[in-house]
Amino acid sequence: MGTSSFSYTNTTPIQNMGNTTEEKPQIPLLTPYKMGNFQLSHRVVLAPLTRQRSFNNVPQPHAVLYYSQRATKGGFMLTEATGVSDTAQGYPETPGIWTMEQVEAWKPIVDAVHSKGALFFCQIWHVGRVSNTGFQPNGDAPISSTDKELTSQIQSNDIDNAGFSPPRRLTAQEIPQIVNHFRIAARNAMAAGFDGIEVHGAHGYLIDQFLKDGVNDRTDQYGGSLENRCRFAREIIEAVTAEVGADRVGIRLSPFANYMESGDSDPTTLGLHLAETLSRYGILYCHMVEPRMKTLGEKTECLHSLVPMRRAFKGTFIVAGGYDREDGNKAVEEDRADLVAFGRLFLANPDLPKRFEMNAPLNKYDRNTFYLPDPVVGYTDYPFLDETA
Ligand SMILES: Cc1cc2nc3c(=O)[nH]c(=O)nc-3n(C[C@H](O)[C@H](O)[C@H](O)COP(=O)(O)O)c2cc1C
């Protein structure tokens, strides 16, 4: 974790009261950055974090405080994964954005974040086969690229679940309807006041179930070749950018991850292909999860790097996965990333950018309360720096 001996060669001369010039070390994570048309004052991004406190899939008033606690002027924040339709859920009490009730419920949350001057994108997802009949309308089978059942009972995001049901393979004719759900969710998110959309293409959920050859066993135009496996993601990006404009769209990808039995035999080629292809749509950013994140919770050292994808993608490049102050600063300084998303550290430290600025100690996160339905405990009760002092 972070060291106390942090120093940088980049310095900005500042005048002090005695009329002499002092060198103030610049902290790369806290330098401004222009992301497309958006001016950010720092590079510490709130990663998307499922918190399972949106009862009946409707965002709740307690989320106003939670998100506004983490909002800073010129900061960039992502919502927790938010369902695009009534078939998109696989975990209890996760929010959606397919009904007007949900759109209305998001509005005060977005307003609170905006009133602090932060930029707020909605992460939209469909879990695909990471679900069971209990989450599906009429007790139907979950949908996927495949009819292969998830065998392991490992818990995604450490979330308890009651197991997975065998999925139903979508026909090619049904796919435009699912793509359209993403489009409508994007439209709804803009109606709720969000500044843009992050398409969740990571972590073994529906889009990833198409991307990865470890899952996708189709023989139609959505399976087989790399191009075909990426078709569903491309169609979603086309639909969402047509709806809200490419300058308000980002995508999250985890080519190296194997969560939910969704691995690829050649993740470097997949990641590069996606970075190059999606670049052509002129989307705002690509948000990639580090190869070292073998599971959502642990980082392991690994020889793979996101640098080739960073070079291939023309827009803003966001990295995530196991970052702390020190290596986040290093990633920015070495130009391996424009922005760094922090998950667990931001969850437990609502004033994370300030703590980074002061090189202050961090609150420890408590994974036992990540997904408690409690509106306060483990949610809005992590102390701010001035409260701990
Ligand atoms: C409680 C929790 C919930 C998460 N929910 C999401 C999510 O909704 N969408 C997503 O893309 N990633 C999700 N993740 C992954 C994080 O965004 C992040 O990539 C991961 O925690 C690694 O980053 P970190 O080491 O900074 O925590 C979640 C992780 C945690 C710990």
From TrEMBL:
Q: What is its EC number?
A: 1.3.1.42
Keywords assigned: Flavoprotein, FMN, NADP, Oxidoreductase
SUPFAM superfamilies on file: FMN-linked oxidoreductases
Record bears the keyword Oxidoreductase:
yes
Q: According to the UniProt record, where is the region Disordered? A: 1-22
Which cofactor is recorded for it? Answer: FMN
What are the protein's GO molecular function terms? 12-oxophytodienoate reductase activity; FMN binding
Its pathway is:
Lipid metabolism; oxylipin biosynthesis
Q: Which residues form the NADH:flavin oxidoreductase/NADH oxidase N-terminal domain?
A: 29-362
Q: Which InterPro entries match?
A: Aldolase_TIM, OxRdtase_FMN_N, Oye-like
Q: Which reaction equation describes what this protein catalyses?
A: (1S,2S)-OPC-8 + NADP(+) = (9S,13S,15Z)-12-oxophyto-10,15-dienoate + NADPH + H(+)
Instruction: Mark out the compositionally biased spans (Polar residues).
Output: 1-20
Which superkingdom does the taxonomy of this entry point to? Eukaryota
Family from the record: Belongs to the NADH:flavin oxidoreductase/NADH oxidase family.
Q: What is this protein called?
A: 12-oxophytodienoate reductase
Q: Which species is listed as the source?
A: Salvia splendens
